[in-house]
Amino acid sequence: PNDGAKKVGKTTYADDALNWAYGKSLLACSRRLQDHLMSVEKWCSKWRLLLNPDKCETMVFGHYTRKPSAKILLGGKKVPQVFALKYLGVTFTPQLSWKTHLSKLSSKTTARSGALRGMTKRRVLPIKIATLFHRATIESVLTYSAPALVCMSKSSQKRIGELQANGLRAAGDLPYEAEEA
Fold first, then answer.
1. Separation between Cα atoms, residue 153 and residue 151, nearest integer Å
2. CA dihedral in degrees (133, 136, 137, 143; nearest 10)?
3. CA of 134: how far to CAs of 88, 89, 104, 110, 137, in Å?
């Protein structure tokens, strides 16, 4: 393969696929990715697999002052460019910030912790069942993408711990001020 081919990659998980190109020039990356996607389309056609361009998105990562635009086509359709992309439970942003991901986790778990607190306050759920509810609806959301979270800053990791602690306090019907262990 030529040098450009080394700067293109792909990863798949079940029916999710992620293709990327990297380099210093957006134009060069776009061309590499477009060439790569054309070979993917050719392979899919050969094996009679259907691609759904409507479920595809493109994102440009990096630190830039103006929002760059990459024109990528798949199946003759322009792939829309997004500024937040969810892949395998992790929300990515162009600057690779955890802020959006943490915000989405917070929204999900805060609502669930509130519902759990309401059930434990009214004694609808015994603590053992409330703990199981916590594990199934809150802890599972926080740990789903755990392998990707190891590169988070300490403050972001602390925020994940706070969300977990809030859920546990709700399950145990403990006050918000209860100390973390």
1. 7
2. 140
3. 21, 19, 18, 12, 5
Q: Which of 73, 78, 61 is nearest to 23 (CA)?
A: 61
How far is residue 100's CA from residue 168's CA, in Å, rounded to a whole number? 23
Q: Tokens in use for 130?
A: 């409330």
Q: What is the pTM of this model?
A: 0.75
**Contact partners, residue 56, CB within 8 Å, separation at least 6:** 74, 79, 80
159-165: long-range pairs with CB below 8 Å, 24+:
159/102, 159/106, 160/102, 160/105, 163/105, 163/106, 163/109, 163/110, 163/113, 163/138, 164/138, 164/139
**Model confidence over 118-129: pLDDT tens digits?**
999 888 888 899
Q: Which amino acid is at 55?
A: K
* CA distances from residue 109 to 80, 120, 145 in whole angstroms, order as listed: 30, 16, 14
CA-based nearest residue to 133, from 179, 177, 172: 172
- Kindly list the distances between the CA atom of residue 152 and the CA atoms of 5, 156, 158, 167, in Å, as whole numbers in the listed order: 30, 6, 10, 21
Two tokens, residue 81: 């460019």
